[in-house]
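DM from R.C. (forwarded with permission)

"hey, sorry to bug you on a friday — could you get me a structure for this? deadline for the figure draft is monday and I only need the backbone to look sensible"
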Amino acid sequence: MEIISKQDLELFRIRILSDIGKMLEANLNHSTNDFGWLRSKAIRKMMNISPATLQNLRVTGKIRFKKVQGSYYYSKDDLQKLFEDEN
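My reply, with the result:
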C-alpha cells in the first residue's frame, strides 16, 4: 500500500487542470477557425501589422473581437470588409 500526501493530490489536481486547459484550447482554436475567427498572432502575421495597430482597430470598433481566456479572436469577415472599403 502506498500513502498519498496532500502535496501528491495537489500536484495531481494541477496536472489534470493543465491537461483540461490544453484540450479546451485546442478545441477552441479548431472551432474558431472553422467559423471565421482568427487569433491575434495570425492576424498580425497575415497583415504584417504591429500589436498596437491591431489593438487600435479593436478599440475603435472597426473589427469585431472575442476575448477567450486572455486571447483575442477577430472576425475574418470584418477584416476583409475593412480592407475592401479602403481600396
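R.C.: lifesaver. Residues 37 and 75 are 5 Å apart (CA to CA).
me: no worries. The beta strands are 37-39, 65-68, 71-75.
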